[in-house]
Write a structure and sequence with these properties.
Elements: H1 2-19, E1 33-39, E2 42-48, E3 55-59, H2 68-72, E4 74-77, E5 82-88, E6 100-104, E7 125-130, E8 147-149, E9 156-158, E10 163-169, E11 175-176, H3 179-183, E12 189-194, E13 199-204, E14 206-211, E15 218-219, E16 224-228, E17 232-233, E18 239-247, E19 251-254, E20 258-259, E21 263-264, E22 273-275
Parallel strand pairs: 11-17
Antiparallel strand pairs: 1-2, 2-5, 3-4, 3-6, 7-8, 7-22, 8-18, 9-16, 10-12, 10-15, 12-13, 13-18, 14-16, 18-19, 20-21
The structure holds zinc ion (ZN).
């Protein structure tokens, strides 16, 4: 009897570990083009921004071409714009391709905050599961002002403001609660850019194939954009909603916002029921 009990526990542990394994694939929110060519004494970099928001690009420091990254600088490339950067660099060593970092946003853009809508349909009411500076996972610079609403798997997510779809990941199926999941970005999410404010909004933990929009789409405030789910680092189904803006050193960081009906994000505490009128 005791052996049977042990076996059952072991089997349960095995089943759990298998189900919570991190996916092998890494999906990207958007794709971009970065070309490199050596011509005489110069290096040419071809940059293309295929999305409807600014992006910023810099080279990763490389021992082969130690100071090349400082000549390249940190470039803000406007929405849908291409450019060529030419750097006079006679000592260029081309034995490996330069690596680069691409992030959302123009970190010099002035942010004009406006009132936004709750990210779910009119008439629906949801509980706040975690608010600003929540101890469980709203404790980093990129998540401190996020709000978790208790949307169930299959519920509709709507756009908090008008803007462009600039990132979609909807191919993940699994979720997990371990540190490995927390440290890896393996959840489905949509990123919108709102040109009038300069803000980005993100809708995280979507269902597998739970995106109703694609990159390049323009969405109105309140338009259905996705189906809520349970993917990535999470213990219960919910929508992780986050408003962000671009910074030079830390990428997109989380920021406070005011919702419709004069509801400040800071007033939304764990357990509060929020009804969208
Ligand atoms: Zn969250």
């Amino acid at each position: 009897m005791r052996t049977l009990k042990l076996l059952t526990i072991l089997l349960l542990i095995c089943a759990c570990t298998t189900a919570k394994k991190l996916p092998q694939e890494h999906y990207y929110a958007f794709t971009y083009y970065f070309g490199q060519e050596q011509r005489n004494d110069s290096v040419l970099f071809y940059l293309k921004n295929p999305i409807n928001c600014p992006i910023n690009i810099k080279l990763v420091k490389d021992s082969l071409n130690a100071d090349l990254h400082s000549y390249f600088g940190h470039i803000n490339l406007p929405a849908l714009r291409d450019t060529i950067i030419k750097i006079n660099y006679p000592k260029f060593n081309s034995s490996r391709k330069s690596k680069y970092i691409v992030k959302y946003g123009d970190f010099n853009q002035k942010i004009r905050k406006n009132v936004i809508a709750f990210p779910f349909p009119q008439g629906r009411a949801y509980k706040v599961m975690q608010g600003y500076n929540g101890k469980f996972s709203h404790n980093t610079i990129s998540s401190s002002y996020a709000i978790d609403f208790d949307l169930q798997v299959g519920d509709t997510i709507t756009s908090a403001d008008k803007g462009y779809v600039v990132g979609v990941i909807a191919d993940y199926k699994e979720y997990g609660t371990s540190k490995a999941w927390r440290d890896n970005d393996k959840s489905n999410y949509i990123t919108l850019y709102h040109p009038h404010s300069g803000l980005f909004t993100q809708y995280v933990h979507l269902n597998y194939k739970g995106a109703l929009v694609k990159i390049g789409d323009f969405v109105e405030m309140g338009q259905p954009i996705g189906i809520s789910g349970m993917t990535g680092f999470t213990t219960k189904p919910h929508l992780h909603f986050n408003v962000k803006y671009a910074t030079a050193e830390q990428g997109l960081i989380s920021t406070e916002i005011t919702f419709e009906n004069d509801v400040s994000g800071s007033d939304l505490k764990k357990g509060n029921l929020v009804k969208k009128l």
